[in-house]
Every structure is written in C-alpha cells, then in structure tokens.
Description:
Elements: H1 2-17, E1 41-48, H2 51-54, E2 62-67, E3 70-80, E4 83-92, E5 99-106, E6 111-114, E7 119-120, E8 126-127, E9 134-135, E10 139-140
Parallel strand pairs: 1-8, 1-9
Antiparallel strand pairs: 1-4, 2-3, 2-5, 3-4, 5-6, 5-7, 6-10
Amino acid sequence: MIATQYAAILFLSMAACKKHHTLPKIPAPVWTVDDSGKYPATMTAVVQIPENLQTYMQPADKIGAFVGDECRGTGTLVKAGDVSVFFILIHGTASEQSKISFRYYRSSKSYLYATTPFLDFTQDGNYGTADGPKILDLSPVK
C-alpha cells in the first residue's frame, strides 16, 4: 500500500514538473494583396485545414497564400454542410516561378501555422475543388 501511494505521489510530482510548451501568441495579421496590377494572372485554391485544427475553427480565422513574405491571396471560409473550406484567389504573373506557401491564423488561440513553399503558380489553374478540397500540411510557427 505504501509503495502504491509513493508511486502515485512520484507520478504526480513528475507531471507537475513537466514543462508545457506553448506556441507564441501573435496579434491578428492584416494580410493584403497588391492590387496595383502587378500580378494580373490568377489561380484558385480550395483548401481545408487539418482535421485536428478544424474543431477549433472560428469565423475570425484567416488564411493566406504567400510567395516568400508577400501575400498573394487571402481566403474566404465557406461552410457546406459539415465541411468547411477556404476559397483563395491567388495572384501572380504568367511566368511565375516561385513556390506558394500557405499561412493559417487560429484566432481563438492567436496561433499561426504555415506550410512550406510547395505549390507552383499556374495561370488560370486550380488547386483543389469544392468537392475535393486539398488538406494543407500545416505546422505551428514558433
């Protein structure tokens, strides 16, 4: 009996000492797209965030498409039945060679998630559809 109580106390002590790693909180980003005509071509992306983040989605969440640190498109959250997707109009040039990455801002916790640059810009192209949205491989930004 004493050994069991000791084990329970030791377990609780170790759990209390465990460091909790949290993500840095950031203010809500203000992502805007250059509308000067610099990027006359567009493509469409229809994406979902991973299932583990979908539970926490809020109307104030934001998503953007980026080339480097330049915002090339922002998304609109659309809910169809039980499925929530983001529609993003991505801007570029016909000869665009840079890879596109995505950033997702979770408003309820003030956390930022991002993909690595992976998507090629294709004039008049589509990445995902309303019936088959692409699920983004997001990682927390630390």
